[in-house]
Amino acid sequence: RFADGLLLGIAYASTCGGITSLTGAIPNEVMTGIPGMQGILTYRSWMLFALPASLAAMICAFIVIYVRYIHGLRLSAMTQEVLEVEWE
User: Fold this and answer.
1) Is 0.85 topped by the overall pTM?
2) DSSP readout, 26-50?
């Protein structure tokens, strides 16, 4: 369960980061090439637009991953011996 939550967390984090940056996602970069958007759309204006949505998505993703995968998980069974066996 923990590994699934960790992998989903990485995927959600890259999605939130891609939304926030103008060059982080291909549709954002394509939008800068539209003739009506040239000169209007800057990195600063995009960050002001996308940062609140990205933060909201990140908070929602954290809550979902925590409730679904981490809440109630007992990590006390993870000892040095268990980690060594998993490594091999």
Assistant:
1) no
2) HHHHHHHTSTTTTTT--HHHHHHHH
